[in-house]
Amino acid sequence: MDEKQLDLLSIKQVQMIPKLEKPPHLRAICSISCSMPARLFFGILKKNQVTMIMDTRRTRDYRGRGFFTSEDDFRYLCKCHDLVYKVVRELSPTREMRATFADEFKFVKKAKDRDPMAWTNFLRSYEDILRSERPLRQGRVHDLLYGEHRVIAIICACQHHEDCHRMLATTMMARYLPGVELKILYPEDKEPRRSYPRRYRLEDFPHFGIQADPPRR
Questions:
Q1: Do residues 155 and 193 lie in contact, with contact meaning Cβ atoms separated by under 8 Å?
Q2: Phi then psi dihedrals of residue 49, to 5 deg
Q3: With DSSP H G I counted as helix, E B as strand and the rest as coil, what are the percentages for the chain, rounded to 5?
Q4: 58 with 98: CB under 8 angstroms?
Q5: How many CA atoms lie within 13 A of 49 on its CB side?
Q6: Domain count, the chain
Q7: Taking CA 104 as the corner, what is the angle to CA 168 and CA 204, rounded to the nearest 5 degrees?
Q8: Which residues pair with 85 in a beta bridge?
Q9: 183, CA 20 to 30 Å: which among 3, 43, 51, 149?
């Protein structure tokens, strides 16, 4: 599908979706990884005037060093920095999705044994969750987005925006919520390296206005 066809399809899909009301206060959604030192992470949030964090990780306590490996530490530091911290399971991928992606791609040592569609299939499954849950129109996510906060950060541990499920969640919010922009935040505004093995989108996601990102030949 070329860019013109994708734009036309996106326009048709947007026209089919009932118009959403403009959030009374929300002006920006930020996509950011928490896999960095606490001083750097909270400094970036302060610079961008973030007042609430939505933690979309399926697992929030795991091995490793850093404030983000412990939910208790994360909550404590958010309180110290006057940030509202919310665990938002409605925007988390399922354990089954994560396990399938790991078995078919992430933890497969030989390239020839990896399923090239694994990342695309993961995103398709996550898209199904978003379209089924309708978080922009109902439930707790809707209430948070239409609450008192002007700038909200959607977080996960994945370092690159496009290697993470938060790409779909944040793009959806900025695309369908009037007056809301998407900010992709990186340390020193430098885009990090993509995950290895490289994750490729082999299909378009017109509902989000996202094009395929296949390997370059």
A1: no
A2: 60, 35
A3: 45, 15, 45
A4: yes
A5: 6
A6: 1
A7: 35
A8: 53
A9: 3
Q: Is residue 208 part of a domain?
A: no
Identity of the residue numbered 181:
E
Q: Is the dihedral of CA 118, 119, 122, 124 positive or negative?
A: negative
Asked if residue 20 belongs to a domain, the reply is: no
**d(C-alpha 204, C-alpha 209), whole Å:** 8
> What is d(CA 149, CA 217) in angstroms, rounded to the nearest whole number?
44
pLDDT tens digits along 2-25: 555 545 444 455 445 557 999 999
pTM for this structure? 0.89
3-class SS of residue 87: strand
In this prediction, residues 172-177 reach a mean pLDDT of 96
Q: By the 8 A CB rule, do 29 and 154 touch?
A: yes
